[in-house]
Amino acid sequence: MSVSRRARAVRILGVVSASAALALGTAGNALACNINEFSAEAKCDGDKGVITVTDVDPAGIKAKVTVYLQNNGADAQKIGEQEVKGSREGTTITFAEDWKPNAEYRIHVKAAPYVDEDIKPNLVTPATACKKEEEPPASTPPATPTPSTPSASPSKPAEETDTPAPTPSESESTTPAGNAPGPAGDSNLAETGADSNTGIIAGIAAALVVVGGGAVFFGMRRRGANSEG
């Protein structure tokens, strides 16, 4: 075989080997860990929330998964960090995180030298919490108190009344001196309207009676003497 043919054959063999190596390298990278083989989900475990990350890397390369709670586009809290070894069927790891509705989490995956990036887009939790808030019981309006009617106080007996008996006024209890009753005689004179001349008149009347009686007596006596003569 001539030199030219031998050189040509070597050149062709080198190109084929390089192509094969490139193909194998590409295939190896395709079979190696890839960020697209990771997925995250916010779920409920009873009344508690959890975050799960699933790795479907068929090569089974170990990867470190870290979960961060976001606040206004920045890491607010590191929730946890775990290692996962993927499989064709998928390997799932769980982070116990009682998440709030509409919360945002950043999930970072590192599997050197293949992956060192976040799962895109960030995980946003559902709008409904795992534990339903108990509705407060319907408040019933308080019953309007019925105004109580004051009971009539028992009337006190007449002798127990607090009002003192009226005392006679001075004008009623004390008879004025000018109106004091006088002796009985004066009272009779006041009633008959007689004055001090009544005694004189009575004496004259008595005298007249005596004189009349004497005249009658002497007249009868004279009549008797005349009848006898």
From TrEMBL:
The chain crosses the membrane at residues 200-220. It comes from the Bacteria. Residues 168-177 have a biased composition (Low complexity). The keyword Signal applies. Keywords: Membrane, Signal, Transmembrane, Transmembrane helix. NCBIfam families: LPXTG_anchor, strep_LAETG. This is LPXTG cell wall anchor domain-containing protein.
